[in-house]
């Protein structure tokens, strides 16, 4: 697992108006705990399919009996092929997908299904989506995108919110000039840095990164991976990293969970799963999937 400082963002080429600003790293160690900050217990998500008969519609089990934990200062990778339930599980973690059965716990307390519970979970667990081009509102400047969640949740005074926005840009290695631009005026790697900054706006305990590099050029994927890892260490976050590429998951993860048809079929320390996989499906992934870093 790489703990190197992230490479600064791409330089000012073409129509890209932003320069590079290195990230300054804290000398304080990240908060560390072996206790899970987010936990799923026997979680099931069942969808009703329209292909079934009128009075007996088909049931699609998107997630089956999933047990999952992530602690502070830990990266847990979830890997599996497209359609295996990874993104559904991610939506459960951030409160966007209700569960059919099972429990979602945060800090040891069971989360309900009401609006207040989802709002609380939404502040504590943030998500970074796959494509920053669609995740960011194209009509909002970077400043507007970052200050909006602070305004919605009423965080601090107006002056404190402005300072928080400047601090967020600094955290992800972007210059203050980025505040004035629209998403289309910057590169894909820089847009993803803005999306990561927005995910950090409410000071969450857990970041869920759902295929955060697959829409990026190969040349900047490692930079974003290193940035996520560095932020996890510096801020003491729990990081859930989701991908269909087991080699990239291994690059950033402390532990790995392998999903197949909605089930978590294998879990363990990253090195153990990579070097001594117990399931045939895991061995198939290792043998068939090229690394996203190359």
Helical content, roughly?
25-40%
Overall strand count: 10
CATH superfamily of the domain at 36-129 and 205-288: P-loop containing nucleotide triphosphate hydrolases
- Which structural class fits the helix and strand makeup? alpha/beta
How widely separated are the two ends?
A: 16 Å
> What's the CATH architecture of the domain at 36-129 and 205-288?
3-Layer(aba) Sandwich
Order of helices and strands: EEEHEEHEHHHHEHEHEEHH
Radius of gyration, rounded? Answer: 19 Å
Task: Give the strand line-up of the largest sheet.
Answer: 6-7-8-3-9-10
How many alpha or pi helices?
10
User: Can you summarize the main beta sheet?
Assistant: 6 strands, mixed
Question: Low-confidence spans: pLDDT under 50, at least 5 residues?
Answer: 1-32
Measured by DSSP, the beta-strand proportion falls in: 15-25%
- Kindly report the average pLDDT value: 84
CATH topology of the domain at 36-129 and 205-288: Rossmann fold
Write out key terms for the chains shown.
six-stranded mixed β-sheet, Rossmann fold, disordered N terminus, four-stranded antiparallel β-sheet, globular, alpha/beta, 24% strand, 294 residues
Structural write-up:
This protein has 294 residues and is an alpha/beta fold. The chain has a domain at 36-129 and 205-288: 3-Layer(aba) Sandwich (Rossmann fold), CATH 3.40.50.300. The chain has helices at 86-93, 115-124, 132-135, 142-152, 158-171, 188-200, 218-235, 246-252, 270-275, 280-288, and strands at 36-49, 58-71, 74-79, 101-106, 109-110, 125-128, 206-210, 238-243, 255-260, 263-269. A hairpin with a 2-residue loop joins strand 9 and strand 10. Helix 4 crosses helix 5 and helix 6 (188-200) runs parallel beside helix 7. Mean pLDDT is 84; it is low at 1-32.
